[in-house]
Amino acid sequence: MADMRLIVVGAAGRMGKTLIRTIAGMDGVTVAGAVERSGSPEIGRDAGVLAGLEPLGVTVTDDPLPLFAAAEGVLDFTGPAATLEFAELAAQARIVHVIGTTGLSDADNDRIRAAARHAVVVKSGNMSLGVNLLALLVRQAARALDADFDIEVVEMHHRMKVDAPSGTALMLGEAAARGRGIDLGDHAVRSRDGHTGARRRGDIGFATLRGGTVIGEHAVVLAGEFERVELVHKAEDRSIFARGAVKAALWGRGRKPGLYSMADVLGLSDD
Ligand code: NAD
Residue ranges of the Dihydrodipicolinate reductase C-terminal domain (predicted)? Predict the structure, then answer.
């Protein structure tokens, strides 16, 4: 089969550059386009050079339309507003949309669900194999240990990250809530400050650390009486997310439209 033609949007970002390097180094996929926001100083540059490689002959542009018409997939690690625009374009072009962007609201997710009626969308707060396995383990642990065990999700990321708690932390909280058979929205405590009162039984707490260049560290703590279980993941390089995103695009090729998760791609859905 011919190489899958992929567009990288947010091409000059931390993940965008990693995606370009990853696609260029993989068989079966090719960089078919690179998009940045209007006004970006990187418009007009070669995408390969931008990512620290030899020239790829792909120029960074702020006009996604013609690219979407000629490609098979788009890898999107940008921001919520941009991702909603790309979801509409991907639905119109009926190409695979892999969404890594985090910080999406419920209303944003509704619009993505609507776009997924027309195109294959794979969306995950974390595209790495390790974190998706961790989510499965968290779900099992939360199911096995009752609400005598308090669940807290602790995360740390680099100083430039703009949303909190991280998409991965929320994904792990969701996994814990599913294991317990409860709704995360009713039990999430996303921050604590001042006189908070005692911890409510069954709540799922989040704690956020920001600093330095940390790519992403997550721990799910299940704290019971006199014992504690901790499930931990440490990302050491952004390429783990990029490889997962490419894998998701290849998996989505030729599939019927719908909203899928990375657990579907990796065969880790246990229900
Ligand atoms: P970043 O700020 O380095 O990159 C985002 C890029 O998107 C920027 O270059 C920005 O100019 C570009 N952009 C914004 N609007 C655009 C538009 N309309 N058109 C084209 N480009 C546009 O951020 P980052 O660290 O690369 O992270 C990006 C997103 O991916 C964040 O939401 C982050 O949380 C998420 N992320 C997800 C995973 C995962 O596995 N799901 C992993 C890492 C990061």
Answer: 130-266
